[in-house]
Amino acid sequence: MTMDALFFYFLMYSLFGWILENVYSYLTEGVFWKEGFLKGPFKPMYGVAPLLLLLCGTGQSFVVVMLLCLVIPTIVEYISGYLLKRVFHQQWWNYTENRMQLHGHICLQFSLYWAVLSLVFLRYIHPSIQGLYTNMEPIWVKVSPIFLLLFLVDLVWTYQVRRRALKSNLIEQ
Q1: pTM greater than the 0.85 cutoff
Q2: Taking a C-beta distance cutoff of 8 angstroms, is the pair 84, 90 a contact?
Q3: Residue 130: which residues within 8 A CB-CB, separation 6 or more?
Q4: Which of 13, 10, 43 is nearest to 120 (CA)?
Q5: Per-residue pLDDT tens for 79-92?
Q6: Which of 47, 37, 55 is nearest to 15 (CA)?
Q7: What residue spans define the domains of the chain?
Q8: Beta bridge partners of 101
Q9: What is the annotated signal peptide range for this record (predicted)?
């Protein structure tokens, strides 16, 4: 896979993650908008986990792929939750009310959900997205720097806003 393809997949799956979380929020809480770390419509952990699955799972036996589909998203979710809480003192999701959870960042129930979604992703979603990328690769190579810039602006802007809010909260305390 080229860097252009990896970036395309990362952005697509980060956007799909944003959509997935907002649909889940709408179905469970009646509100479509669920605040994420970034201000834009991207959830980077949903971009990272699929890339790791693609890089580690290609050519593996079905049993190994199933295990990777359970372990990789769970590790990505734990590390993401840990880092966000450590850096910004905020927890965007909390599984402490769920059984078999670890520090509120992961729980068995959602790890099993991620495993099933990951299998569906590898079997049905990624082949279609891969076909889409193949068809638009000549265009993507030319426009991807714009998307990279937009993503980086969102990342830097969000980081600055969140750090300012954190400093403001610390001063008030």
Answers
A1: yes
A2: yes
A3: none
A4: 13
A5: 999 999 998 888 88
A6: 47
A7: 3-172
A8: 107
A9: none
